[in-house]
Amino acid sequence: MDDSQLRHELEARHPESFGWALCCCRRDRHRAEDVLQQTYLKILGGMARFEGRGSFKTWLFAVIRRTALDERRRHWLGALRLLAYGRQRPPAEPDAADALLDCQTLQPAFRAALEELAPRQHEVLHLAFYQDLSLTEAADVMGISIGSARQHYDRGKAALRRKLGTLREFQERDDHDQPTGRSAIPGAVL
Question: What structural domains does the chain harbor?
Fold first, then answer.
């Protein structure tokens, strides 16, 4: 793949790449932007090369995931150094988009339940529902077997159902025969 084709593919995949970077960075917008920029630099600088063994999208998502893991590790090492000197990082300010979502009643409950999942369950659900990848493609991105991806997928969905089923907001909707699950929560997928 030549440089112009590579740039075209990156531009075409940017919105979904940013969504995946957000997931990998636990919704920290600034860190996701940094991870995506580092990913693009790796790719355009030739440190990560697409060899055509799978789809471009799964390869790109795998590079983003590995870059996010490296960034998380660097962040934790830096935080440990700061703790050694008795300094702590100030809490991050919520961005305007998250502030708007907090005004809704069900979205915060869903997001909290999703964040409480084990990291791999969270990742596989995000890839399957928000990025429209098959479980095989999600497994490739995550570097795990398809069986393991299926197991994380099934356990993640079951955990979300359990967590959301205990919340009053979701029980009230069931009592009134209103839709629950994906149709009841904008942007939520169960």
Answer: 1-93 (1.10.1740), 94-190 (1.10.10.10)
